């Protein structure tokens, strides 16, 4: 069984892919930054949420199961999300990936490393104060502010409670690259560039 598993984890070239986890609360602007990283540094952007939605849309047995779990307010098991991520990595010709919005919690993280045998190169953490996130999210949908502020605060709280242990785990390994996400988009990307550029130059040389 061992050899099959090993083969299944690599990319087409046989070597393990480079994986970077991208974490940040709602409104931290990580989606925009991921698009920039893809454009400038040739990474493939994988969003756990998008993969789950695509699977549901496909109408597969797996998709129906995911849809039912979400309907019932249940959390989709780590293994399900990880298998979708793993499949996306294997089917893509690229060997470097940004995994966005995952791991959402410590259990996700442990399961990802166990199932894929891939440890992220580093974690890109878009750190944005709650007030700034609120301002951004409320600015997106004017007219519904009253019922939104509570929802936003709840989402932020859930993000902090579940994601902080993941960030602390990787921080202890020296793998967290924290970005001040409260700044304007361009300024944030300048900071992102300082993390990615040394690698990009090596590739071009």
TrEMBL record:
One of its GO terms (molecular function) is kinase activity. CDD domains: ADK. Its main location: cytoplasm. It is found in: Cytoplasm; Nucleus. ATP binds at residues 27-32, 140, 183. Pfam families: ADK (PF00406). Its EC number is 2.7.4.14. The keyword ATP-binding applies. It catalyses: dCMP + ATP = dCDP + ADP; CMP + ATP = CDP + ADP; UMP + ATP = UDP + ADP. Its cofactor is Mg(2+). Monomer. Catalyzes the phosphorylation of pyrimidine nucleoside monophosphates at the expense of ATP. Plays an important role in de novo pyrimidine nucleotide biosynthesis. Has preference for UMP and CMP as phosphate acceptors. This is UMP-CMP kinase. It comes from Camelina sativa. The gene is LOC104706962.
